[in-house]
Specification:
Length: about 220
């Protein structure tokens, strides 16, 4: 009799352990999926519009009052308005994605990878980049760009224009750039010289669109 009860106890403990392992795995799996979705605002891992079949419940939106906005500095007010239109917006995740997009775009431009550029730039910026690539290719020149490091990346401006969210990021990087002709001779730059470069890039997305990806809509340097 005692042995029978021990066997039953063991079986009960085994069933309980399996149940706990299943529940823990399901919880960790959901958390991992949510974190991955937030950390890729530029869709670099898979640049496809969000599926209407994959609906995510978002927190209730708080629409700031004019009085609340007036009490904030312009940057804080802009970010607050963007969060009201898109509750999934997070500054840290956005800047992380912007850094990755910055490197991807510069490397694609150097490699004349117009297909990759087209998915990351709006039409106007893409035409400018594609035109520069075409002129470079026609001249028989080859651009080499190496980003040694990104020393600074911060949001310097944020605003809502109707349904359009615009976020401007300042990048301070160390780069090595050189332009070579068909014979391999240096036309511009120095492959042995690291230069400090400041860029001001603006990204935009329609908060009413099912596509969660941001596009580069303007580039410039610090004046």
């Amino acid at each position: 009799m005692g042995g029978g009860f021990q066997i039953i106890d063991i079986l009960l403990f085994a069933v309980l352990a399996l149940f706990l392992i299943f529940k823990l795995g399901s919880v960790l799996g959901r958390r991992g999926e949510d974190e991955g979705r937030q950390a890729d605002p530029f869709g670099l891992s898979k640049r496809e519009p969000a599926s209407s079949d994959n609906v995510v419940t978002m927190p209730e939106r708080h629409v700031p009052t004019p009085e609340e906005l007036a009490s904030m500095d312009p940057l804080e007010a802009g970010i607050t308005q963007i969060k009201a239109a898109d509750p999934s917006f997070r500054e840290k995740e956005f800047v992380k994605g912007a850094r990755a997009a910055f490197e991807t775009i510069l490397q694609a431009f150097a490699r004349a990878d117009t297909a990759n550029l087209k998915s990351l730039l709006d039409n106007t910026v893409y035409e400018n980049f594609a035109g520069a690539i075409q002129a470079r290719t026609k001249a028989g020149h080859e651009l080499e760009t190496t980003i040694v490091g990104i020393g600074e990346s911060e949001i310097v401006k944020a605003e809502m224009d109707g349904n359009l969210a615009r976020v401007t990021v300042k990048f301070v990087t160390e780069q090595v750039n050189s332009l070579k002709d068909a014979a391999g001779e240096i036309v511009e730059g120095d492959p042995a010289n690291v230069v400090k470069v400041s860029d001001i890039w603006t990204f935009c997305r329609n908060t009413k669109s099912s596509d969660p990806n941001w596009l580069l809509v303007a580039t410039g340097g610090e004046g």
